[in-house]
Specification:
12 strands, 300 residues, globular, 36% helix, TIM Barrel, alpha/beta, 10 helices, binds zinc ion, six-stranded parallel β-sheet, single chain
C-alpha cells in the first residue's frame, strides 16, 4: 500500500484547478484579507499596553486579541518579573479596567477576540493544549465566559505556544470553534481526520512543497475550519515575511500576522523592532488596492 507521501507525489492537479488556486477562487473573492493577531491579553495586562501598540491604527484596522480567560502565570519566560513563578489564577473579570476597555473597543469595532487557552500555563513541561487535562470542559467554559464577559461571539481559538494535540483539537471542535493553526494535515496520530481534511492534502502540499510557500487560504474541515499564521516576533526575518505576504496577495488569500504586545519593543533577527516590522507589513498591504483588514471571527 502506498504511503500518504507517495500519494501526494503521484497526485496531479488538473490545469483548471491550478488556475483556480492561483486566482483565489478557493475563497471566492478577488482581494487579500489581513488579520492582525496579538496574543496574551489576560488578567494582568494593562489597557495602556494594548493602546500603546495599536491606538494609532485601530480606527481603520481591527486588532484581534487572543485572550486567556483564567491566566496562571507559572514560569513563562515572557512574564513581567513580579509574576514569575506565581501559580494563582488571575481571572480576566478581576481586571475591570481592562474589561471596560475591551468592551468599549469591541463595540467600536476596533478589537475582535479569540480564545487563547484557558490558563495558558504548562503541564509537566508541555503547553496547555498538549499536556493539560479536562480540555473539553475548559474550552467550552472558557468560550462561554469570554462571550458573556465581553459581549461578543468568539468562534476562534489560538492555542498557547502555538501547540495543540489531537485531544486539544477535538476540544476546540466540540466547543464549536475554529483553529488559528494548521496542525500536520497528514498525521492521523496528531489530529482528527475527516474526509475533507484528506481531500485538502494534495493542494496544501502543492503550495507548501511544490511552490515552497505557505498555504494561503482558510481550510474547511467540515466540522471546523483552520487557518495558518505568520509570526512577527524576535525570531522573525523581514525577507521571509514579505515574501509570504506577497505570495498571499497574488493568491487573494488570508494572511494572519501573529505578534505580541509585550514583544513590540524587542528586536527581530534583522535588528529592527517587532513594532517596525508589524507596521511595515501593514503599510505594504495597505498599498495594494482592495486589501481588507478584518477581525479574526469574520474570516470563517
Ligand atoms: Zn500565548
Amino acid at each position: 500500500m502506498s504511503s500518504v507521501k507517495d500519494t501526494i507525489i503521484e497526485f496531479k492537479i488538473p490545469e483548471a484547478e491550478v488556475s483556480d488556486l492561483l486566482t483565489g477562487v478557493n475563497r471566492g473573492t478577488n482581494s487579500m484579507v489581513i488579520v492582525i493577531r496579538d496574543d496574551d491579553t489576560c488578567g494582568f495586562t494593562q489597557p495602556g499596553e494594548i493602546q500603546a501598540c495599536y491606538e494609532k491604527i485601530w480606527d481603520d484596522i481591527p486588532i484581534s486579541l487572543s485572550v486567556t480567560p483564567f491566566r496562571i502565570p507559572g514560569n513563562d519566560k515572557n512574564l513581567p518579573k513580579h509574576l514569575m513563578g506565581k501559580i494563582e489564577t488571575l481571572p480576566l473579570h478581576e481586571n475591570q479596567e481592562l474589561v471596560q476597555m475591551l468592551r468599549a473597543e469591541i463595540i467600536a469595532g476596533r478589537i475582535d477576540i479569540s480564545m487563547h487557552g484557558y490558563h495558558h500555563t504548562c503541564y509537566n513541561g508541555l503547553p496547555e493544549y498538549v499536556g493539560g487535562e479536562e480540555l473539553g470542559k475548559k474550552t467550552r467554559d472558557g468560550r462561554t465566559y469570554l462571550e458573556n464577559l465581553l459581549g461578543l461571539m468568539v468562534s476562534s481559538f489560538v492555542p498557547p505556544n502555538n501547540a495543540i494535540s489531537k485531544g486539544g483539537i477535538s476540544a476546540v471542535i466540540d466547543a464549536g470553534m475554529n483553529l488559528v493553526n494548521v496542525p500536520s494535515l497528514w498525521s492521523v496520530r496528531r489530529r482528527p481526520m475527516t474526509s475533507k481534511t484528506i481531500r485538502h492534502i494534495p493542494v496544501y502540499y502543492w503550495h507548501r512543497k511544490v511552490r515552497k510557500m505557505p498555504y494561503p487560504y482558510v481550510l474547511d474541515m467540515g466540522n471546523h475550519k483552520e487557518v495558518g499564521y505568520h509570526t512577527a516576533g524576535p525570531r522573525s526575518r523581514r525577507k521571509q515575511l514579505f515574501s509570504d505576504l506577497d505570495y498571499c496577495e497574488r493568491n487573494n488569500g488570508v494572511f494572519v500576522i501573529s505578534t505580541h504586545y509585550h514583544a513590540f519593543d524587542r528586536k527581530t533577527q534583522d535588528g529592527e523592532t517587532v513594532r517596525a516590522l508589524v507596521f511595515d507589513l501593514i503599510d505594504r498591504a495597505i498599498a495594494w488596492p482592495d486589501t481588507e483588514f478584518v477581525g479574526i471571527n469574520t474570516i470563517w
